[in-house]
Amino acid sequence: MTTTNPLLTQVGGDHYKGFAIQPIEYIHKNDIGFIAGCIIKRMARFNQIGGKGAQDIEKSIHELDILIAQIQGGAFPYSTYSMETSLPITPGAFCFANGFKTRPADIIGLVTRFNLEGNGTEDLLKARRIAVDLLSDMGAIA
Fold first, then answer.
1. Fewest CB within a 10 Å sphere: which of 61, 90, 94, 138?
2. Residue 133 to residues 5, 57, 107, Cα–Cα distance (Å)
3. Extents of the domains making up the chain
4. pTM of the predicted model as reported, rounded to 2 decimal places
């Protein structure tokens, strides 16, 4: 067993190592579910060196569609936290610390708030619209 911090090592690139708060730290500490966590990590890395650009956004849109369908089918959000201010790391602090721009930060905030509050699909649909606009602005087809 190693005593080295595993967050200091990354296999297949270094697009997470440069973040002040890595997506895995944010997702784990805030008790965010798997699909919502995937969306957050893709929004964090899409425009980083080693990120996957439009493909990350396309996958995020697909994952938002999956999450929306699950909620419409009766699934519930995952978090044990009840409000944003009770989170160990707020979406604003995560996005500010890592210098995320407006639209990726908006998507991360909306997905996190959905995960907390479970207010139907409203936040997820808004996040999806923002992701589609972001993809469109990159010249990719949504």
1. 138
2. 37, 10, 12
3. 21-137
4. 0.84
